[in-house]
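Weekly structure sync, notes
Attendees: PL (lead), two postdocs, one rotation student
Agenda item 3: pending single-chain targets
PL asked that the sequence for the first pending target be pasted directly into the notes so everyone works from the same version. It is reproduced below exactly as submitted, 149 residues in total.
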Amino acid sequence: MSMVINSAYSVNKAMISARAADKLLEESAAKLATGKRITSSSVDAAGAAVAARMRSEIAIAGQAARNINDAIALLQTYEAHAETVVNIMQRMKEIAVAAANQTLSTTDVNILVGEHAQLREELISMSKNAAWNGMNLFDGSAGSNGTIA
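Predicted structure, written out during the meeting:
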């Protein structure tokens, strides 16, 4: 069927309708391409605002999860160092009890005292060098990086 246009009014109306149809087609194509119902704030201003707020909340939640993972890593590092400190201190206690044995020779006691001194030096070294992300774990400064909690 052919279409006959008799006036400028009909031409203008047909052009307006064609533009509207073209705009609807572009919006539908954009929705299909992005997979989103709202492709711009001109489509749904309130919906776009809600979507933007939700994207912000998701980003914040992601950062919170990364912060939690960092805290877990710090605690695991601290736990490993603390376990080593406990083991060293237990050995130092064993040495002290063994050195108090009156049946040991002076040489044996001196060997035990030497080991005790070495373990003490190791504890001092650990207290100075046990760190996570630049924070010393045993001098009380861990977690006091100057930020507001």
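Discussion points:
- The beta strands are 131-132, 135-136.
- The mean pLDDT is 82.
Action: rotation student to compare against the earlier draft before next sync.
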